[in-house]
Each structure stands twice: as structure tokens, then as C-alpha cells.
């Protein structure tokens, strides 16, 4: 399942498919310990999870005006369930913020791809069906550097939804953030004899330059992120490490007559590697597959299931054509009229990429996997919701989730 918090950061919880929502909102006065409360029941149908019902609850302004708490839970008729709780944008000082989240999940008769079944040339029917238990807890400490918009706005700059672009370098524009994210992850599979650690912990060290004009509906600018993940010997079977680099670019190409009042070309480049892959005599310094380099899911290779492909290295290119129609009827439709829906967006997209057991640029551009599809996205009460249909070589995927993919 994958969800996201109400502001900028992404929350990674596998297998999210949320639909058919209703909302209950409770407004309170200014002296309350929170400013706004929403509950959203939902239901969805999934071959892998089953027929499910659940609810999401959002508390805004919890303790601090910009902070929020998000809770999600659902249960299926197959016995699968997910519980999730996160707190976001808590300001510790002028430049420090912290986010934290945790989830516990159980999946019954779920399809898992393991070992060679996750290779780029593996077959769709190589999965193993079993019960699995997954969990994660993590915190992210963010320090906003005194560069660009961070010079004057400090930590506030990182959670403002809209920004003015004033240059092409971190010194002149955008928000540059250093991050440290300690984490603990587990995955336990029943009745499977598979040589992989069922838990791991470590920390992600990140550098993020966000030079977008909007975090919700970007029309111009860029974002560049570098992550280095390290899991030490202490508390792990063996130490391991990975790195990730991502660069996103956005180009406003204007209106199209009276049909579209905005057109945007969005491009994303992602690559990752595993420095510890060859350490040791038998690959003992490789990360568990659920914590390593992966493609497939809600953000890259959207025509495949989450974590369908894993390996030492990965590369992926995503291209989107986003338009905002001049016609916007959602605010007047049933159910939608319970919310503030300022805009909607139509999208065509494609993903091209693959994994490999060597970081070889030539190999990473051979026999690449391809996904393509279309989406409708809209902002609801400050949260971007996207419903998309994606196709790959193996199957098609329909998903409803939150946040832009990049």
C-alpha cells in the first residue's frame, strides 16, 4: 500500500487502492489542540488483497498550525489488513522539521516475487502465493539550508505549497534540505524457505533541492534528490548500502485554445545502485529485496506490481503530458461537492526502465520494461488524488492513490 501525508513528503506503504470515499468534517475553534478533522471511509476490490473496507482520518494543525496526523486502516474479506499512522511537518526549531510514520500489515494468499523471479527477464507466473506480515517505522529529520527561499523563510519554505522561482541554482532559488531518516522494516512470509533476513534497520541520508513552483500541481521548475542508505552490522545479519538519484523537470507549454488552459511536459530520471553488492564471498552484504533497489508500483514502472523487479542497479525514465481542461465540473458533482476541488488534470504517461545485477549503463538500456497509461488527477482539500490505468507487458493495473508520482 502507498499513501502520502497531506503536505510534501511521500509515505511508502505498499498496495494502495482507495476508492468510493465519503467525508465527515468537524471544524473547531482556534483554541483547540487541532484545527480541522476529516474522516474518509473507503472501499476497493483487488484480486490480491480481496474486497476491502476501511477509513482514513486526518487531523490538521495538531499542536502546530502546519502539522498534521494521518491514520489509515482497512480489512479485507481474505483476512488481509493494514494499519498506518503518521505525523508530519513538526517544526523543532527555526530550520529543523521532523516527520514520522509507522505501519503494520498482513496479506493473506498474496503474490510475492522472490529471488530470480524478480530479475528483468523473469516470467509473470514465477510468483509464490503465501501469507505475509510487513511493518515499518521511520522518522525523517529535515534541516533547511540557508539557500534560495530558505534564506528568509527557513523551515517554513519546505512546507509552502506554492513558491516563486527566482533562479536556476540552489543558491538563488528553491528549497535545499538535508535529511536523516532512521528506519526499521520487516517482512515475514509463511511456509517459505527463503534465505533472506526478515528484518533490517538503518538510516537514509538525503540531499534534496526542490525548485518547483508548486508541490501539488507543478508547471515549471525542477527537483533533484540524492539518497544514500546504510544499514550497519549491528542489528542486521550483515551491513549493506544503496544509493538513489532522481531528477525531475517540468515545462509549461501554455494553453491550447479554449480546450486546455494549461499544458505541462513532465520528465523524470531515476537511477540506483548497491555499493555493497559484491562485498563478502556470497552476497551476504546485499539488502533484503523488500529494502533494496526496486521497480514496479505507484511511482516507477506503473504497469507492474509493487517491487516486481529487484536487483543491484536500476534505471528508469518517465514522461508525462499533463493538461488542465478549461471545463471543470467536479465541484458540482455529487460527493465531490463535499470537498474543495479547485482543479483537475488529465495525464498521459509512459515509464521505460529495468534492473540489472551490474551497474552497466549499456546493459541497463537493453531489453527495457515499458509501462504506459492515462490518469485523472485532482486536488481535494489540499491533497492530490490520482486515478490511473497502466499497462505493461504482463498485466494492466488500475489504481487510486494520493500525490503526484513525481
Give a structural overview.
- The chain is globular, with a radius of gyration of 21 Å.
- Helix content is 2%, strand content 53%.
- It has one domain (89-402): Porin, CATH 2.40.160.
- The protein has a 17-stranded antiparallel β-sheet.
- The protein contains two helices and 21 strands.
- It has helices at 150-153, 156-159, and strands at 3-4, 10-11, 24-27, 36-46, 50-60, 68-76, 81-91, 96-112, 128-144, 175-189, 199-212, 221-231, 240-256, 260-273, 293-295, 309-311, 313-325, 344-356, 369-380, 383-391, 396-402.
- The two termini are 17 Å apart.
- It has 406 residues and is mainly β.
Topology at a glance:
Elements: E1 3-4, E2 10-11, E3 24-27, E4 36-46, E5 50-60, E6 68-76, E7 81-91, E8 96-112, E9 128-144, H1 150-153, H2 156-159, E10 175-189, E11 199-212, E12 221-231, E13 240-256, E14 260-273, E15 293-295, E16 309-311, E17 313-325, E18 344-356, E19 369-380, E20 383-391, E21 396-402
Antiparallel strand pairs: 1-2, 3-4, 4-5, 5-6, 6-7, 7-8, 8-9, 9-10, 10-11, 11-12, 12-13, 13-14, 14-17, 15-16, 17-18, 18-19, 19-20, 20-21
Protein name: Bacterial surface antigen (D15) domain-containing protein
Keywords: Membrane
Main location: membrane
Amino acid at each position: 500500500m502507498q499513501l502520502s501525508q497531506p503536505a510534501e513528503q511521500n509515505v511508502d506503504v505498499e498496495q494502495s487502492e482507495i476508492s468510493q470515499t465519503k467525508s465527515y468534517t468537524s471544524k473547531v475553534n482556534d483554541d483547540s489542540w487541532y484545527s480541522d478533522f476529516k474522516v474518509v471511509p473507503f472501499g476497493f476490490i483487488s484480486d490480491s488483497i480481496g474486497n476491502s473496507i476501511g477509513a482514513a482520518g486526518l487531523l490538521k494543525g495538531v499542536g502546530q498550525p502546519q502539522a498534521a496526523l494521518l491514520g489509515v486502516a482497512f480489512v479485507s474479506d481474505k483476512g488481509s489488513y493494514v494499519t498506518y499512522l503518521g505525523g508530519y511537518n513538526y517544526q523543532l526549531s527555526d530550520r529543523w522539521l521532523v516527520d514520522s510514520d509507522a505501519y503494520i500489515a498482513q496479506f493473506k494468499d498474496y503474490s510475492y516475487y522472490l529471488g530470480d523471479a524478480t530479475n528483468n527477464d523473469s516470467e509473470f507466473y514465477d510468483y509464490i502465493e503465501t501469507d505475509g506480515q510487513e511493518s515499518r517505522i521511520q522518522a525523517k529529520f529535515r534541516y533547511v539550508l540557508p539557500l534560495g527561499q530558505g534564506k528568509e523563510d527557513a523551515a517554513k519554505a519546505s512546507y509552502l505549497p506554492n513558491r516563486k522561482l527566482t533562479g536556476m541554482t540552489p543558491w538563488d532559488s528553491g528549497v535545499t534540505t538535508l535529511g536523516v531518516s532512521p528506519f526499521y522494516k520487516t517482512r515475514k512470509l509463511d511456509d517459505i524457505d527463503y534465505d533472506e533476513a526478515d528484518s533490517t534497520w538503518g538510516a537514509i541520508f538525503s540531499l534534496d533541492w526542490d525548485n518547483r513552483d508548486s508541490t501539488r500541481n507543478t508547471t515549471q521548475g525542477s527537483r533533484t534528490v540524492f539518497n544514500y542508505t546504510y544499514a550497519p552490522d549491528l542489528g542486521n545479519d550483515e551491513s549493506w548500502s544503496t544509493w538513489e538519484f532522481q531528477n525531475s523537470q517540468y515545462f509549461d507549454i501554455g494553453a491550447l485554445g479554449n480546450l486546455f488552459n494549461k499544458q505541462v511536459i513532465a520528465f523524470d530520471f531515476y537511477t540506483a545502485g548497491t555499493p555493497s553488492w559484491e562485498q563478502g564471498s556470497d552476497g551476504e552484504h546485499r539488502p533484503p529485496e523488500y529494502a533494496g533497489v526496486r521497480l514496479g508500483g505507484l511511482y516507477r514502472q506503473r504497469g507492474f506490481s509493487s517491487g516486481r523487479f529487484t536487483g543491484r542497479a536500476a534505471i528508469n525514465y518517465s514522461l508525462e503530458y499533463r493538461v488542465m481542461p478549461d471545463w471543470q465540473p467536479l465541484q458540482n458533482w455529487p460527493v465531490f461537492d463535499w470537498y474543495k476541488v479547485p482543479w483537475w488534470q488529465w495525464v498521459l504517461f509512459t515509464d521505460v526502465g529495468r534492473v540489472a545485477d551490474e551497474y552497466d549503463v549499456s546493459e541497463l538500456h537493453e531489453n527495457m520494461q515499458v509501462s504506459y497509461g492515462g490518469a485523472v488527477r485532482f486536488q481535494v482539500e489540499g491533497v492530490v488524488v490520482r486515478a490511473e490505468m497502466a499497462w505493461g507487458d504482463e498485466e494492466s493495473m488500475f489504481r487510486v492513490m494520493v500525490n503526484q508520482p513525481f
